[in-house]
């Protein structure tokens, strides 16, 4: 059977609808718009599957080797070897059946696909969504190493690119920065004015210690003690195995003298942003980028984010955002108080912040760049090359 030169296999390590999952949808849409014949391989079923099928992309659920950090510890080695073997066999069979001309590898934690693509004579394009400069350099190098087999490596921020340079300089020569395209409603809901009653704070994302969700509650408590009423909405759920952290958050919330809504996971975030006053992105650890911060700016809401890693690129440079030291609840509370005190001036600047974010993170431009990379065309005007 001859190989279809327009056939593309997209592989992704999950089936949820968080940051990298949403970017996968944008990538697939760009490939389809370019007239490529796309199939998506996922390791499990989930809400992402329905979204992909709705846009016309066939989905195959296949056993897949996903390199989680716990597998790198000695007690995880038997599972690592077992899933690596079964994953390689399943991937080889799928490549034999589909015979794609190109493979788009979404994230660095599915390391077998670039190597197998090279063996099968297919082009591979790795899209790096991860960057943890504070982690172990040798583990980072191990994660990046298989992607030397890819002909092209896309990264979502300058911080991600510098992390690659730090961990595996040989990979940097084929890397290109493509800032995330972030979807936005055509018209965002203006913030309320005047700012009366409780200050409505919103957190969106995974409930995990590294994301600093407990800092949101601590900052809210500090603000409440200063005499300013607050209400907190936590939009998201915990990773499997981190249920203990959500329980800890619920206990922390019960000890506070303010309302906390554990809203759970919702695919539609804009109604929650419309009901909020300020979005908080208080990550303790490195983030490769910060889609959530950009979504807050697009929704015409002030954003308070940690002044670190990719969050600095996502939220920096806007008059309506505040960057604060990581892991500092008092700094969050101080920034909240400042924004509330300057509310009329902040509100006046929100439309211009939204306009800038729309230009910088246009989904249509992002989709064109992904399609160019996967199809092997030269980067178009405005392509960020490192």
TrEMBL record:
InterPro entries: Glyco_trans_1, Glyco_trans_4-like_N. This is Glycosyltransferase. Residues 19-182 form the Glycosyltransferase subfamily 4-like N-terminal domain. Coiled coil: none annotated. It comes from Brachybacterium faecium (strain ATCC 43885 / DSM 4810 / JCM 11609 / LMG 19847 / NBRC 14762 / NCIMB 9860 / 6-10). One of its GO terms (molecular function) is glycosyltransferase activity. Keywords: Glycosyltransferase, Transferase. Residues 198-340 form the Glycosyl transferase family domain. PANTHER family: GLYCOSYLTRANSFERASE (PTHR12526).
